[in-house]
Specification:
By secondary structure, the chain is of the alpha/beta class. It contains ten helices and seven strands. 51% of the residues lie in helices and 12% in strands.
Length: 273
């Protein structure tokens, strides 16, 4: 990873630029904080103008002209917002793309709003696909760059009553892993990040089971720290956070059909309560 801004200036090298989607809260905001402290300039993308503006004011007070933002909703079928971000990428050097924006839902599929499920697929799958496709030509030309895509432990395991969500995160995982090996040797790092339950707004948006399952989440700071360490080491995949890693190794001990059945019982009980 890059060092401090002072080191860049001393060596006569401009800071690298990271574009982060879903940057207004949670894991995306923490990526912004840690990358900024590591010397990156930032382009922050999210829906909430007030939060993005406050973040950029904070970062620019620390280092002038080091952060900017774009208000955009990447979850709509005919997303002019998404095309605007693709156009921005085509005109700017992006050294690190963080595909973080996403959301989930919780409930029996037949009782969930179909439009919302479609929006989830667009945001969790189509947006990372299109933004990655937009940034790859410049990275391949420079033979440098990095792409982080947020998957989930749910991408490794079907989640009954969160079936659409886990399917989208499986897409993110396999999309990222495939690109990691496709681009190996071209100077481009591609990392899939698979956090477990994390202390963010995700549970509120998904109306998920959260604490009802008795699973304590990781804090965002170690989740992002572990992710950036894995990127430094050019890993293909990481499960960040100590609590998530314990669950990951536990899941690996059980056959897929058995753990899916157990999860269905737990999720059904949580849904009833």
């Amino acid at each position: 990873m890059c060092g401090s801004q002072e080191a860049f200036l001393k060596n006569g090298v401009m800071p690298q630029t990271a574009l982060i989607t879903g940057a207004s809260a949670g894991i995306g905001q923490e990526f912004a904080r840690q990358l900024h402290s590591n010397g990156y300039n930032l382009i922050l993308v999210a829906r909430r103008h007030d939060r993005l503006e406050a973040l950029c004011e904070e970062f620019n007070s620390q280092r002038s002209q080091s952060a900017e933002f774009v208000v955009a909703d990447l979850s709509t079928q005919d997303s002019g917002n998404l095309r605007d971000i693709e156009k921005l990428i085509s005109h700017r050097q992006i050294d690190l793309l963080v595909n973080n924006a996403g959301f989930g839902s919780f409930g029996a599929l037949s009782e969930l709003e179909l439009v919302r499920e479609e929006q989830m697929v667009l945001l969790n799958c189509v947006a990372p696909l299109r933004l990655t496709h937009a940034v790859l030509p410049q990275m391949r030309e420079r033979q440098s760059g990095a792409i982080i895509t947020l998957s989930s432990l749910g991408g490794l395991q079907p989640l009954p009553y969160m079936s659409t969500y886990s399917a989208t995160k499986a897409f993110d995982l396999f999309f990222s892993l495939g690109l990691h090996y496709e681009l190996k040797g071209e100077g481009i790092s591609v990392l899939a990040v698979c956090p477990g339950q994390t202390e963010t707004e995700f549970g509120e948006v998904a109306r998920g089971p959260g604490d009802d399952l008795g699973v304590e989440g990781d804090q965002v700071r170690p989740v992002v720290h572990d992710s950036l360490r894995a990127l430094e080491k050019r890993k293909a995949f990481v499960v960040p956070g100590s609590k998530a890693r314990k669950i990951y190794w536990l899941l690996r001990c059980l056959p897929l059909h058995l753990r899916s059945r157990l999860l269905a019982r737990m999720m059904r009980r949580s849904l009833r309560t």
